[in-house]
Amino acid sequence: MSRSLKKGPFVDFKLMKKVSGAKASTSGVIKTWARRSQIAPEFVGFTFGVHNGQKHIDVLVNEDMVGHRLGEFSATKKFIRHGGKMQKDLEQKRQVSEIAAAKAAKAAPAAPAKKK
Q: Are the beta carbons of 40 and 11 closer than 8 angstroms?
């Protein structure tokens, strides 16, 4: 559900205060915990360190991000992979085929170029 148009977009006051007094080229990473804050057009060019619960993830804001929230660009969960025996077997087969392809490429002598 979107925010009411009469209220306008939510931008954290402290975050806007940090950005208003700085230049994008000279300021470093601006650390913030305000994941719910929307990205305003004034934020373009700045790098924000958005907290994901453990550490700050650097997010360089560009024009396409305006209107989105900062938290969208700092994932809170890390996907490792789906496990299981079947997945392990597939990975082993892929690794064996890569090794065989590398050996075949190494064993094949380079063909000399034809002279005209």
A: yes
Q: Which residue's structure tokens are 């490792």? A: 80
**What is the per-residue pLDDT across 12-22, written as a single tens digit (0 to 9) for each?**
999 999 998 88
User: Where along the chain do its domains lie?
Assistant: 13-73
pLDDT along the chain (116 residues), means of 10: 81 91 86 93 92 93 92 88 81 91 81 63
CA angle 72, 24, 35 (to 5 degrees): 20
Cα 86 to chain center, whole Å?
A: 29
State the first-to-last Cα distance of the chain, in angstroms, to the nearest integer: 72
CATH class of the domain whose range is 13-73: alpha beta
- What DSSP string describes 38-93? BPPGGGTT-EEEEE-SSSEEEEE--GGGTTSBGGGGS-SS------SHHHHHHHHH
